[in-house]
Write a structure and sequence with these properties.
single chain, Jelly Rolls, 2 domains, five-stranded antiparallel sheet
């Protein structure tokens, strides 16, 4: 419940933004890491659903039990809408949308998901398949899925029959698929038949005729151990190299150019042309990295994600151990065991932040709510959070634990009863409030025994218009 004039929008999100090296105006390179979504169970593929303006991410959950893998639903600005939107999968990889159906490869099955219903509607086993990978479809509604380990492509026809469509070493152990006109484009991983893909040579970008299945090379030289494949113009393609850890730009006119260095495991990428964003799932790093090629500038005192830089000026409660320092509410790290503000009280605990001497217009506030250590119970989370803003210049004199915050002028802008869960919570003010200082108050926790007096939260971000 949000009291006064605050609109509460919850966005459970594990989103890590990158800090600029200074608070001065900065300009981005051609492709620059804008933000990333962390704590996903080995994401392999990302796809954009335009009618709903959401992203789907296939999570392989490597090492988990059969049926424990999932598909997450995210917003296009990185909020995790539903981390376990679809469950009951084994090791999902490539995805493609046809109408209101999402088709997902899942080891030896092609899985059909009804997007409106949010549930699996059909499973199609692929006979003799070993490692189904990417998925695409033609204009007639036929769905194609690659099998990287058998160097084959299966097709689900419009009569819902999944059959082997083409198998050949010339497919170079196909991974990424894309239909353009009467051609099926194939991102070849590189030939191998010994079950050792990490030792395979580089593959080519290939084309297969949908009429007679003739295979031809598009690239004039090998490109990499290719995974993702998306178009972005006439004869222009983005491809990911899983082994070398890179995103490549291949042009039929100018050839190959590496545009992004990632790490090993860059998977089935997505490109949001209108936003100028490339989304790269990183299975081994358990995150999706989002790169922007727009010429980004940041104003003085503003991070690249649009939030203001803040500095801790004073805290009523803090501890000696870095895991629970009050300064952790500024550190842009929301992972467990990386630190939270764990105040040694059941509440209230207060912290005062500044904008490094600047006055900023605050319109939106986000709090990432979690406990610092894996062993900490969620009872330690702050149940009631109050946020105040002030433009009182006398606050620059605050400096000791005996200071009385009530001696200064504050405007309360948030009085929130929080949910007992980890994630992002968002509060939007009806109009901007100009302030030099921010007071974050953790009023009470969810109830801990007397011998465990803690009240916690992890991070606060403040934004302008």
């Amino acid at each position: 419940m949000i009291k006064q004039f605050i609109k509460n929008k919850t966005a459970p999100l594990l989103l890590t933004t990158l800090m600029t090296t200074s608070a001065a105006t900065a300009q981005a390179e051609t492709w620059q890491l804008a933000w990333k979504i962390s704590d996903l169970p080995n994401p392999e593929s990302v796809i954009y659903n335009q009618p709903r303006d959401v992203l789907f991410v296939s999570n392989q959950a490597l090492g988990a039990q059969p049926g424990e893998a999932s598909i997450s639903m995210l917003s296009t600005n990185g909020a995790v809408i539903d981390k376990n939107w679809i469950t009951g999968l084994n090791e999902p990889k490539g995805m493609h949308i046809v109408g209101d159906k999402l088709y997902v490869s899942d080891v030896t099955e092609l899985v059909e998901i009804d997007i409106s219903e949010g549930k699996i509607s059909q499973r199609y086993p692929a006979e003799n398949a070993k490692f189904l990978n990417d998925v695409t479809a033609d204009s007639d509604g036929n769905v194609y899925v690659s099998d990287m380990f058998t160097s084959a492509i299966y097709r689900l026809n419009t009569s819902n029959q999944l059959q082997l469509w083409l198998q050949s070493p010339k497919l170079e152990n196909p991974n990424g698929l894309l239909v353009q006109g009467n051609k099926l484009l194939v991102a070849g991983w590189g030939k191998f038949n010994d079950g050792k893909p990490l030792e395979a040579p580089h593959g080519n970008l290939l084309s297969v005729s949908l009429q007679n299945k003739a295979i031809a090379k598009v690239s004039t030289e090998t490109l990499g151990n290719l995974d993702g494949l998306v178009p972005h113009g006439d004869g222009e393609y983005f491809l990911s190299d899983w082994v070398d850890g890179a995103v490549l730009n291949y042009s039929t006119k100018t050839g190959l150019r590496k545009i992004i260095d990632t790490d090993r495991s860059s998977g089935d990428i997505a490109y949001l042309e209108d936003q100028g964003l490339l989304l790269v799932p990183m299975a081994l790093q358990k995150e999706v990295r989002v790169y922007s090629r727009r010429h980004m500038t940041t104003d003085l005192g503003v991070r690249r994600d649009g939030s203001y830089y803040t500095r801790l000026e004073w805290a009523s409660h803090t501890l000696d151990t870095p895991l629970y320092w009050a300064a952790n509410i500024n550190d842009d790290d929301t992972a467990r065991n990386s630190g939270s503000w764990g105040a040694p009280t059941t509440g209230p605990a207060d912290a005062v932040l500044s904008f490094f001497g600047e006055t900023q217009a605050v319109k939106r506030i986000r709090i990432f709510h979690n406990v610092g250590a894996t062993i900490s119970p969620l009872d330690e989370l702050a149940k009631t959070v109050n946020i105040y803003l002030s433009d009182d210049a006398d606050l620059q004199r605050i400096g000791d634990k005996t200071a009385s915050l009530e001696d200064y002028t504050w405007q309360q802008v948030v009085d929130a009863t929080m949910e007992q869960r980890e994630g992002w919570f968002e509060f939007e003010l009806p109009k901007p409030v100009h302030a030099r200082y921010v007071r974050l108050q953790l009023a009470e926790n969810f109830g801990t025994p007397p011998d465990r007096s803690f009240v916690e939260t992890s991070e606060i971000k403040l934004y302008g218009e």
